[in-house]
Amino acid sequence: MSVSAPASSASASSARASAARASAAPASAPASEPTQADLLAFVRRTAADPDLIASLPLDPEGRTWVRLEGPGGSEAWLIGWPPGTGTGWHDHADSVGAFVTAAGELKENSLAVRLPADGWKTLELTDGVDLERRLPTGKGRSFGHHHVHEVLNESADQHAISVHAYYPPLPQMRRFSRSGPILRLEQVERPEDWQ
To answer: Please, are residues 49 and 22 in contact by the beta-carbon 8 Å criterion?
Structure first.
């Protein structure tokens, strides 16, 4: 989760306090490792907390974020997206995850193919592997291991806010560049790179 501007201020403290309330809300907290369904239920519930969403400091230039307490030891984030920003192509290694748009609209481009875990730098993708989803406020999705996607706020004038959760906590993220059907591995990030 490379981001350009961490949330830090009294507003961030307020967001963390609201996040603690959101994670402590009565719910069917999983007794074991959270599933994709558990993560999706958590991000939906959290995205429905108007105080938490309103407390996130928004930056007109770069994404902002606050780490949340996710269910069952998962990693969770509240993220603000200025107009025209995105993640670039990436995956989440062996983690499963879910995210929901809490305000605005996000677009997800993804690949309907599982990439090899290691041992490659460049791949040529075949036709028909590209998927696109529009995720307006209240809409989200879950995904499995090695899910490759990019998330974008294509609005010219409106911030978007989303809630994300991953289990196990992200051990790494691979970043890719894409030129037509050619996907290139550019960088491997570890938690210390984005926390």
So the answer is: yes
Residue 25 is predicted with a pLDDT of: 43
φ, ψ of residue 21 in degrees (nearest 5): -65, -45
How far, in Å, are 42, 79, 180 from residue 92 at the CA level?
18, 16, 22
* pTM of the shown model: 0.82
| Contact yes or no for 181/125 (Cβ under 8 A) | yes
- Cα distances from 60 to residues 55, 80, 125, in angstroms, run 16, 10, 35
* Cα–Cα distance measured from residue 63 to residue 153, given in angstroms and rounded to the nearest whole number: 10
The pLDDT-based confidence of 193 (bands split at 50, 70, 90) is confident
Alpha carbon 177 to its chain's center:
18
DSSP annotation of 95 reads -
Q: Residue 12 — pLDDT band, cuts 50, 70, 90?
A: very low
pLDDT of residue 116: 80
pLDDT digits (tens, 9 = 90+) for 95-153: 999 999 999 999 999 999 888 877 889 999 999 999 999 999 999 999 998 899 999 99
- E strands, 45-157, in order: 64-69, 75-81, 89-90, 96-103, 105-111, 122-124, 130-136, 140-143, 149-152
d(CA 56, CA 79): 8
